[in-house]
Every structure is written in C-alpha cells, then in structure tokens.
Write a structure and sequence with these properties.
heterodimer, A: 458 residues, alpha+beta, Phosphatase 2c, domain 1, six-stranded antiparallel beta sheet, 15 helices, 15 strands, 21% strand, globular, B: 890 residues, D-Amino Acid Oxidase, Chain A, domain 2, Gyrase A, domain 2, eight-stranded mixed beta sheet, six-stranded mixed beta sheet, 19 helices, 41 strands, DAO domain-containing protein (chain B), FAO_M (chain B), GcvT/YgfZ_C (chain B)
Chain lengths: 458, 890
C-alpha cells in the first residue's frame, strides 16, 4: 500500500465520518420510503386530506391504487387493488372499476346529470388511467351497456347494490373480453388481464355516508375516538380460509363430494389464497373453455376443477354513518396487515396527526451518570414534540411496519435499511407489496352537516 | 387452658371495661386456636362445615403495612385480641409502606390542628420504638427552600409554628448564609430557606418490624401470606366474621387497612365491593450513590424545594431523589373484570425527567451520580388531601377503614392508628376527626372515574400547603345547580365544595366562554384579586339586597310519629315549637361537642326540614339514623339536598323585594325572623322560605324545587333591579358572618367544641333532656378551658402585609394561647377580622381572663396587635340610606 500513495490519498478523500455516513444512508432510506407517496388536500367536504404511499416487493409491483371523485353524485372513491399472478388485472381494475361505479349513481343521489365520460374526476392513481385505445373503446361500450342495464333494474336502489352490480359487471366484462371474437381470435392483453387476478377494497364516501366494498384479503379500518382514546374499527372482512363464513359459503355452493378438494392447504383448489377476486378466470371458466382460450397461452388448468365457477367478484359491502368521532379511514393491502395489527396502525396515525413520536421505555445506559440521563431524556422530550420523520401518514405507517415500533429511531433505521436494500422481486420472499391509503375526515364538517334527513342508502 | 367465651362488646358496654376484668392472656386460647387454624384449611371461607371451632378475635385488621400495624399495635397494647392478616407479608415490597422513603415531616409542617396532633403522636411513638428496637432513626431536620412569594409565606408560616416547639428552627433569608450552611446547594433565586429541626428520617422496614414485635409481645397475632377474602355481615348489619385464605375468623370488628388494595376487600352484601374515596397514584423516587461533596453525613438535612415539589435526601452512602411534578404522576388504571390486582407501575424515566431536572438545578452535583435505581410504587390519595379514617358506612356496623394517607403515611400512621384504636374501643372518636372521617365523603367521591381524574392533582400537591381558598382544577363541574349557567353569565367565579360548584364572587367579565372555575389559591400576602368585587357585593348585602346561591347546603326531611321525641333528644335547643317556626340548634355528642349545627323548621306536626352545613350531608343523617336505631322511634329521614335550589335573599331591602315577588305582606309580624312558610313566587308553588340568612342580615333563604328554580330565579332578578339587587358569592357570605362572629361548623367549630365554648349557651335549653346535656351543664358550672373569640387586627396594611388565613397562633401577653380558625376582611369594621379560640388548660378561660390580656396574632412570622371580642359587635350601616337598620336576633 505504501507503494501506491495515490490510493492512500484517495482513501483519505473518500473518508467520511461515521456520523455523516449514517446520515447519508438515512437519506437514501427516507427517499426509498417516500418515492411513491402522494397526498391531496380537500376542502368543503367530509374529507380533509388523503394520503397514500406504496412500497414494492414484486417487480413490477402488483398493487395498484386509485382515487377519484364522481361528480354526478359528489361521492369520493378510493380503492386499493392487490394483484396476484401478474400485475395486469389489478392495473386494469384500478383504471376501469370507477367508471362502472360512477355509472351506477342512484337517481336520488344525482346532483348533476353528466354524460358517462365526464362523470369521473381523478385525484390520483398509481396506474395510468388512460387505457390503450382498442381496450378503451370496448370499455366505453361495456360501461354504456352496464348503465342501460342499471337504469332498467328497479331493484338497484341502494349504494350497496349499486357497488355490487358494478363489481360484478366489471368482472363479467373482463371475463368476456378474453373470449375469442367472431373470427376466433383471442386478444392476448385481455386474456392476460382475465387470467391474472386482483383483490379490491373500495371506499365510497358520499357526504357523511361511508360504504366499503371488499373482495379478497385487503382491509379497511376506521380510526374512531372513544372517550379520549382511539380504537380501530374493522370495516371489512378478509375473504380467506380464516373466515369461517366464507369457507361455509364456498363449500355450500358446490357438491358435497368436493368438500375436501375445494380448499386444500388453506387455498382455493390448493392454489389461490383469496376466496373472492376479479379476473382469475381459471377458477371461473369451464374446463372446455379454458382448453380453448388459455392453454394456447400456456396457462394451465387447476386440478380439481369440477363445478366452476369457484370464485366470484361479489363484494361484501359495509356501511358506516360518519360521526365527528371518526378520524380517519385506512385502506391497505394485506402486505401491511401481516406486519401490523389494526390497533397499532390506528395509534400510529393518531400519534402522527398529533405530531408525536411513539416512544418506548427509556433505560439508562449501564455507565451513564445523571447528567447524561437528563440529556437523553431532554432529547426524547424534543423528539416527542418534534414532527414525525414523514409528513405523509401513510409513509409513516409503512416506516413503522418495516422498521418496527419499538426501539429508538436508530434501531428503526437499521431494520429499514436491511429490509429496503433487498432488490424488488427478491424482497417478495420477505414481504408483500405494501399500499396504504389514509383518508382523513373533517370532523368539523361532519358535525355541521348532520344528515338525519336521509336514509343511509344501503 | 380453659376456653373462655368470646366477650363481645357494643356501644353500651365498652370493651375496655370488659377487658379490664379479665386479663387478655387468659382470654386468648393462643396455642389451641393456632393449631386449629393451621389445620382448618379444608373448607376455607365456610365456618359451618368445618369441625374445628373457628378462630376468634376481637378485631381483625386487614393489611400489615404501617397503618394496619399501627392500629393493631395500639389495640394490642390496650389488651384487645387482635389478628392482623396480610395477603403478602409485613411491609410488603409493593405496598406504600414497602416503597416508603422513610422521610417524615415534622408536625409543624401541618397547619391543620388535627393533623398536627396526629403527627406529634406519631413522632413520639416512633422515637420510643426506635430507642427500644434500635432501628435507624435520625433526627436530621429538613430544609424548605422557597423561591416564589407563595412558598416564602408558607415557609414563614411553618417557621412560626415550628419555632413554638423548637427554638432551633431557623429562617435563613440570605443566600450567602444558605451557601455557607449547605454548600451543595445552588441557591440562585431562593428567597428563603427554612431549617426545621424536628423532621426525621427512619428505617420504615425496621419500624414495621418493631410494630410487629410489639403486637406479638402484647398477644396480638399476625398472619402473613393469608389474604382476607370476604367480610361477612350478619344480623343488624353487623360484622360477624371474616373469611380468610386460612378459614373463618369470628370477629365483630374489622379494620380495612389494606392500603391501595382497600377497595378490593369484598363484603357478603349485595354491593359486594368496598367503595372508598381513595385511589392509588404512582410515587417515584430515585435511589443512587452518595454525593461527591464533603461533609455529607447521616445528619445532613432533607432538602425540599417547595416551588418545584422536589425532595432529596443525601447521606454518606446514598442519595434519594423524589418529586411530585404533576406530569410525572398518573393514577393507576382500574383493574378490569379479569384482573384481581392493580397493574403495578414501573419506574418511567420520561415521567421522572422534570423531577430529576428540578433536583439537579438545586443541587448540581447530583448530575455526577450514577443513574441508580428508579423505584416506583403506588400510594392511596383522596380527593381532599386528607386521609380516610373511621366507620366505613352507616349501614355496616363494625367495619372500620384507615387509608388514603396522600403520600404522608409515615407522619400519619402512628397517630391515626392510636386515634382509630381509641375509636374502636370507646365507640366514638375522642378527638376532632371532622377532617379525616370517612363520612365526610359522599358516594360521589367514591366514583372511580372521579377519583382517577382528581387524585393525580392531589398527589402533585404533596409539598404544597393548602389553605381554605384552595381549589383543584381537575374533576370539576360535577354537581351544578339548575341556575349554574345563568349565574355564570352574570360573571360568577365558581369554587367547588363536595363536588358542588358554588359562586365565590361575581366579576365584571360576563363572557360565557371564559373559564369560570377558580383554581389555585389566594396569595398569602397582599390584597387578592377578588377584593373589589367582594367589597361591592358586601355593600349590596348590607345596604340594599344581595342574592346568594346556597344550594350546596345539606337539606334533610325528617318525619314520623316519633320525630319530635327524637329531635328533642338529639338537639340541644327546644325544637317542639309551633308549625312554621325555625330553630337554630346544635346536635351534641355525649361530651357536649357539636356533631353538627343546623336550622330546623317545623313544616308539619310530625315533619321537620333540616338545613345543615354542606360538609355534613352524610354525617348529619348518619347521626340521626344512629339515634333512630338506638331509641327505636318511628322516624324516617330523606336527604333532599339535591331536590332544592337555595337562594339567599340578603339585605335591608330584601323585605320589599320579597313582597314584590310574592305579592304578600311580609312585615315582621306576618313573617318574623326564625320562621318558615311555604310560599308562591310568580307562577311557582312549593317554595320553602326560611327567614334565616346564616350571616346575621335580614333576609330569607328560599328553597326552590329544582324544576321551577330557573323561573323563580329570573323573576327575583327582574324584580331585584328596582332595588339595585346584586349577585353575591360565598365569599361575601363569609365576610358577613365572620364580621358578625358567626362560627361555622367545619371551619371554626367541630365535634370537639361545645356551645358553652363558642358563646352559644343561650341556644341551649337545659330544661329538657338531650344528648350531652350533663357535659354542657358541667361546663356552665365549672367554666371552660377554651373559648371562641373574635379578633380585630390592628396595624395591618392590607396591601403589603400577609393576610390571615385561619390557623394562625394567638399570643396573650406574649405567650401562645390559641389558634385562629377562620379569617376575613371586615369591611364595616375596617380591619382584618379573625375567629379563633383561646385555651387555658390550667385554670380555664373566664371573661375576666380574656379581657385582662393584651393579644397579638402571628401571621407568617409577623406579629400584629389584636383586639378581642367575646360577642358579636353591633355593626352600623356605612351609609344613611336606610335610617332604621336591622339587627340580627339576640
């Protein structure tokens, strides 16, 4: 080394103080976490702010999210779409579902009668809301057809039913889009969309009325203050084997001979974890149809396919009347819920809103004297009053999901660094894609606009 | 050993008499019952099924902490067969005694006479025990450091008391002097440092062990690891046994000294849980190595920063630091249904931060010490900063409680134990217990939520000296009169008493969104903020008419065929007057002391309406119930306190105002003073009007049914405009009554003061038989050792001098002769006016004795000459607007 002075100089130049190096990888960590965050501030409605953040584990990411306002009913729509078996289905659902929902505006809720194409105002979406032209034309046709059907169905009088019919119509159209045309040709893109699948959790907020429609294992949680403390209220139920009702529903829909074969190893036909989803035509189509359309594309038929369909896109819809005690709604893919309990998420967001850090108990270092202890405690006090590291509460949740809620900031950064340096794709073995939307409500608005006159519109 | 039949006792047959006849040793079949006890575990809690005779004890004490051991010690010493049970062991580590720092305040710290005496007794006991059992007991003294004016005057008041007992007390007001004496301190901005020499540091574990040995030596027994499971109440609502882990113990008296676990003791009655107005709060201190400064020894005093509520004790081997900053204290969470115990807190450095910082500011070298061990315990606190002592409830006989020591367990335990032991033996307390009695609390005070909200604030006031004007800021707005909001919109500033918000005075600020609740206390020196407002209200009440909300006063209805007989027995005045008359009377105890004073109005032949002081709501009813039980008379009692809104219409124009609103002729012949009528006001009916104002002015108190209260109030205020009527608060009432030398129960007089001593012999009818008659008669014959007087203070500058607050020392010819009880500014007399008593235990207090002395009063270590009045002064009108002025009766 002595023979190579230039390298010594170089080393000296490259020498960075350990503290600064630490700072630098903190900045990288922060940048990685905040890369896909976004927030919207809304005025004069029940919602004050919407924050979203996303972290990929798959490459490409299979989670999509979107938010829009339906101008004809003044309803806000938020959706998290957790794809599986590829990203195409969730990407398409995120772009197309809201058109169906905005077509399904009930007469009594119409504030402005607009033509189909102008009903939606997008707030944000992680996918591109503009579809390729050949799909867009077909999509417009489909929505128009849906509208016609919707208008003529006298039974569709509630938001719940409207949401359900919108979900089902989209799923039918996805499925139909993959069928061969008159010439017997199959569109590859459409077939991919139909062959992959997507869970979805969609919140529909119209004035003080909140509907949550859910299929699959994403979840919606409401942060409600009860006396002086905050509790988490689940507004969705996961559709997976852990949900007994769901298992019951699937088993009873098929012959008794299939009881053991439908759910194997905790999965539908031994393959699919969520028990309701968009797309996934492999569990919906008959064997013959799959042989014609999917086999040429290299998509295999699942074993045990006797009496399809096994899967549906019928959402479970929960209604909640917003009160001034409801502070925020969290929509997140299962990637988050496997790290954090709903209660912890709600506490994190509440602490974030109050501007405090969630602290763990202090233990003095073994050799510390009281002067040092006081300095430490002072620093912690400042940390308490200081703003949390992220402006965006959704990012704050993701940071704490991966970095852990216990231990100090240093600890958290260590763990985050470990988790984030895994390349996308590789990371899938350790965690799923993470998408979090936090919808902050405006308690003042809700207090001043009580809507006792209306029925909830179930 | 011959088994001796258990000798019970009741009120008629005091235990002391019973036990004096038989030696305690022989009545105590010790060996056999211990053996029986040891085997008797097959059917725990059920005495009937066991073949062995259950154990017997005169008194069962639950809890072997300081309080329980102290009670048991005093009982055992007097020959009572006592058994102490504890779910853990003597002085268990989680209890308040187990985490006690061993620092004990000297009696002079306690301004209240009761607490002062209790603490004095504790010191005496501990000193004896330390001498006998040789545990660590160091009379190292304490230094109170004051930087604010409030702390300065408080320390001067402690000094005044302290100096009486010990000439070594010193008040150092020069910073370089302080530094010379205590070089480890940072004396910046200290106004004064008071060295109080009688404060003690002792080894609590040693003390507990000594008490336990004393109990055993006197034949008492202590069962460790043996929890009390249930207290069994039998016929006549009397305790008959206690179920413990080891089996049933037959007893007629149970003492709940379980500290923070007191409310977990179960009863076999429908309300299975004990409810006590006490809740545990965290109590944290830091124990670390010795300070590096030289000259620190076991005799180095304890340092207290009065403004920061911080305390530290340094010796040559360790340093203890503690503090009571409100942010650092939290009430323990209520155990849920699944838990049977408190979640014991652990030391939280974040919460201790401010205490540590405050201590380091006063003693910078603390910073060099090791982090040490942060110890956190829990201690019972009560809503009013005084402990809880006495009978648990009127409906359970033989169940006593002793707890809620508010972080002062060491100074209180010894004296309170002795007090309770005497109480149990004699059936009634032999001292003034009005401040500590458990019956001062209502059921509302035992509400867990109320306690959780209130007690952390109480805990933070551990080193604060609380005067009568003090108001807490937590757990407010609990009880409110129907006209609360109307009064607030008129500018009322509210103070709380028994959970009830009453207006103290009325400001000019009528903004309905302002904070109308008074918190904190008056300055000890100089004119308080309320002075101009109260002056205005006072003038209205003396010259025109004032309206005072008196809803908080306790109101009872008693009736039944035996009611006249009962009241004639319990009241010292003759109440058998025609329907429509009102009598002011005392209810005396056997020693002639006031159980309470009250005004009794006869509303029908067999029905009376009683109005008593606010703090007597439960006690007054309990006393009557006790005598109904004893006499077997047919009498019922209804507590109607919360059914009526009371408005006091006070002042010379009140007659005209009342005539306007009632439309009736209210001349002295139609509605004389001391009379009761049911009247209409406007559209409202059923209003009880009593022509007694409780302050010696002309006027009426109207007891208005709550549902019409707002309506009636509005009418009176409307009609009052013609007479320039003004709202007045409780402070005005206080000024009016002290200036006229009207003593109030709970402030001036107590169960230890007789009518003869407070100049109210003329209210007593010796022509009939009543409780306490003989004692009173004897006093009139032999004279008294104590007499209440009114003191007018001279040479007092109200802008710059310390104001009397009550509890000042009175000097006669330079010798301490008594204490003041309440004080105020006399607007008509033009000087500070106090009510106080003069004592002379050697040859009594005669009028000649009083009139022959020259008097001084010590306010915050400053002497002021005082004139003494034995009777109410005649107060002229300030203006000549009303030429014929009204004189109170008598």
């Amino acid at each position: 080394m002595a023979a190579c002075p230039a390298r010594v100089v170089g080393r000296r130049l490259l020498h960075v103080e350990p503290g600064r190096r630490f700072m630098r990888h903190r900045t990288t960590t922060d940048a990685q976490l905040r890369a896909h965050e976004y927030s919207v501030v809304l005025e004069d409605c029940a919602i004050s702010r919407v924050e979203v953040s996303q972290l990929a584990a798959n490459k490409p990411i299979e989670d999509y999210h979107s938010a829009a306002k339906c101008i004809s009913s003044n309803a806000f729509l938020f959706g998290v779409f957790d794809g599986h078996g590829g990203a195409s289905c969730s990407r398409h659902v995120s772009a197309r579902l809201f058109d169906y929902i905005s077509a399904a505006v009930l007469d009594k809720h119409t504030v402005k009668n607009l033509p189909l194409g102008e009903r939606l105002q997008w707030l944000f979406s992680s996918g591109d809301t503009r579809l390729p032209s050949f799909i867009r034309d077909q999509h417009k046709e489909n929505v128009k057809k849906f509208l016609k059907k919707f208008k003529h169905d006298a039974d569709l009088t509630t938001v719940r039913k409207a949401l359900q019919s919108a979900f089902l119509a989209l799923d039918d159209d996805i499925s139909a889009g993959a069928l061969p045309d008159n010439a017997g040709r199959v569109d590859r893109v459409c077939a991919n969309v139909a062959a992959s699948g997507s869970c979805a959790v969609v919140a529909h907020v119209r004035r003080g009325h909140l509907h949550v429609a859910n299929i699959g294992d994403s979840a919606a949680v409401l942060g409600v203050s009860h006396h002086s403390n905050l509790t988490a209220r689940q507004l969705s139920r996961p559709h997976c084997v852990e949900n007994d009702d769901e298992v019951q529903r699937i088993r009873s829909a098929h012959p008794i001979s299939e009881t053991t074969s439908i759910l194997r190893a905790g999965r539908l036909l031994g393959e699919l974890y969520p028990l309701r989803a968009f797309g996934d035509v492999r569990y919906k189509w008959t064997l013959d149809l799959q042989k014609v359309v999917l086999e040429p594309l290299g998509v295999s038929v699942p074993s045990g396919l006797f009496t399809p369909p096994y899967l549906s896109a019928m959402p479970e819809v929960f209604y909640h009347k917003l009160t001034p005690n409801d502070h925020f709604l969290v929509l997140a893919s299962d990637g988050l819920w496997e790290w954090l309990e709903p209660d912890t998420v709600v506490r994190l967001i509440n602490d974030h809103t109050l501007g405090t850090q969630t602290l763990s108990q202090y233990v003095p270092a073994p050799e510390a004297n009281l002067n040092e202890v006081v300095l430490d405690l002072e620093r912690r006090k400042q940390g308490e009053s200081k703003k949390p590291l992220d402006e965006n509460s959704a990012t704050h949740v993701i940071r704490n999901a991966l970095g852990g809620v216990s231990g100090g900031t240093d600890h958290q950064y260590e763990r985050l660094k470990e988790s984030l340096q895994l390349p996308p794709g590789m990371a899938r073995h350790y965690r799923d894609d993470l998408t979090v939307i936090v919808v902050h409500f405006n308690p003042e608005y809700i207090k001043n606009h009580p809507e006792a006159d209306e029925t909830g519109g179930f | 050993m011959v088994p001796v039949k258990h000798l019970g006792y009741d009120v008629k047959m005091p235990i002391c008499r019973v036990l004096r006849s038989v030696s305690p040793r022989t009545t105590w079949p010790l060996a056999s019952s211990v053996r029986a006890y040891g085997v008797d575990t097959t059917e725990p809690g059920d005495g009937k099924k066991t073949t062995k005779t259950p154990m017997k004890a005169d008194v069962v004490v639950c809890g072997a902490g300081l309080a329980g051991l102290s009670v048991a010690h005093h009982l055992a010493k007097k020959g009572v067969r006592v058994a102490v049970f504890d779910k853990d062991c003597v002085n268990n580590a989680h209890s308040a005694s187990g985490t006690c720092m061993g620092l004990m305040a000297a009696p002079s710290f306690f301004a209240d006479r009761t607490m002062h005496d209790i603490t004095t007794e504790s010191v005496k006991l501990y000193e004896q025990l330390a001498h006998k059992y040789r545990f660590m007991y160091s009379k190292c003294g304490r230094v109170y450091m004051a930087s604010s004016d409030l702390a300065l005057w408080n320390s001067r008041r402690i000094f005044a008391r302290s100096h009486l007992i010990n000439q070594d007390a010193e008040l150092v007001d020069d910073q370089s002097d302080m530094l010379a004496r205590w070089p480890m301190l940072d004396v910046e901005n200290l106004q004064a440092a008071l060295f109080s020499p009688d404060d003690v540091v002792l080894d609590t574990a040693g003390l507990c062990a000594a008490l336990a040995s004393e109990i055993r030596a006197n034949g008492g027994r202590i069962f460790e690891k043996n929890a009390v499971k249930k207290v069994l109440i039998g016929d006549g609502n009397k305790v008959f046994a206690v179920a413990t882990d080891g089996g049933l113990v037959e007893t007629r008296t149970f003492v709940n000294a379980a500290g923070i676990w007191s409310s977990m003791i179960k009863l076999n009655t429908p309300m299975a849980q004990t409810r006590i107005a006490m809740h545990p709060c965290t109590y944290t201190y830091l124990m670390t190595n010795a300070l590096p400064n030289s000259g620190i020894s076991d005799m180095t005093p304890v340092f207290v920063d009065m403004d920061k509520s911080t305390i530290f004790r340094a010796t040559d081997y360790q340093t203890i630091i503690s503090g009571f900053h409100q942010n650092g204290i939290s009430a323990l969470n209520l155990p849920n249904n699944l838990q049977s115990d408190w979640n014991m807190p652990t030391g939280d450095w974040d919460k201790f931060y401010l205490n540590l910082k405050n201590a380091m500011k006063r003693c910078p070298s603390i910073g060099q010490l090791d982090a040490g061990e942060l110890i956190c315990g829990a201690e019972g606190y009560t809503p009013d900063m005084f402990p809880v002592l006495g009978e648990y409830s009127d409906s359970v006989r033989g169940f006593y409680v002793i707890n809620g020591f508010n972080g002062k367990g060491l100074p209180y335990a010894g004296g309170m134990g002795s007090l309770l032991a005497d109480w149990i033996i004699e059936g009634t307390p032999n001292r003034d217990v009005s401040k500590v009695e458990s019956t001062r609390f209502l059921d509302l005070h035992t509400n867990p939520q109320y306690l959780v909200e209130r007690v952390p604030e109480v805990a933070s006031k551990t080193f604060e000296i609380v005067h009568h004007s003090h108001q807490c800021q937590t757990a407010r707005n609990l009880r409110m009169s129907p006209i609360y909001h109307q009064l607030r919109n008129k500018g009322a500033v509210f103070g709380e008493i028994m959970g009830y918000e009453r207006p103290l005075w009325f400001t000019n600020d009528v903004d309905p969104t302002r904070n109308s609740l008074l918190t904190g206390q008056d300055p000890l020196c100089g004119k308080p903020d309320w002075f101009p407002y109260v002056a205005r209200e006072y003038e209205a009440c003396r010259e025109r008419v004032g309206i005072i909300d008196m809803t908080s006063f306790a109101k009872l209805e008693v009736g039944g065929s035996g009611v006249v007989q009962l009241l004639q027995k319990v009241c010292s005045a003759n109440v058998d007057k025609p329907v429509g008359s009102t009598v002011y009377t005392g209810m005396q105890n056997e020693r002639g002391g006031y159980v309470t004073d009250c005004t009794i109005s006869r509303i029908a032949d067999d029905k009376f309406f009683i109005v008593a002081p606010t703090v007597q709501q439960l006690r007054c009813a309990n006393w009557l119930r006790r005598w109904i039980r004893e006499t077997g008379l047919n009498v019922y009692i209804n507590d109607v306190t919360s059914m009526y809104t009371a408005l006091n219409i006070v002042g010379p124009s009140s007659r005209y105002l009342m005539q306007d609103v009632t439309g009736q002729n209210l001349t002295p012949t139609e509605f004389p003073a001391f009379a009761y009528r049911e009247i209409d006001i406007g559209m409202a009916t059923g209003i009880r009007a009593i022509s007694v104002t409780h302050c010696g002015e002309l006027g009426w108190v109207l007891y208005i049914p709550n549902e019409v209260a707002q309506n009636v109030y509005d009418r009176i205020v409307d009609a009052g405009q013609e007479y320039s009527a003004l709202h007045a608060g409780y402070y005005t009432l206080r000024h009016l009554r002290i200036e006229k030398f009207y003593v109030y129960w709970g402030q001036d007089i107590s169960s230890n003061v007789t009518p003869v001593e407070c100049g109210r012999t003329f209210r007593v009818d010796f022509g009939k038989d009543f409780i306490g008659r003989d004692a009173l008669f004897a006093q009139t014959e032999t004279g008294v050792n104590k007499r209440f007087v009114q003191l007018l203070i001279d040479k007092h500058d109200r802008e710059r001098d310390p104001w009397p607050q009550g509890r000042e020392i009175i000097f006669r010819d330079g010798i301490p002769c008594g204490w003041t009880t309440s004080a105020t500014y006399g607007f008509t007399l033009g000087c500070q006016v106090c009510i106080g008593y003069i004592e002379n235990h050697e040859f009594g207090v005669s009028p000649v004795h009083i009139n022959s002395g020259s008097y001084e009063i010590d306010i915050g270590n400053k002497r002021f000459p005082a004139r003494v009045n034995m009777h109410s002064p005649s107060l002229p009108m300030v203006s000549s607007e009303h030429p014929i002025h009204y004189r109170p009766t008598q």
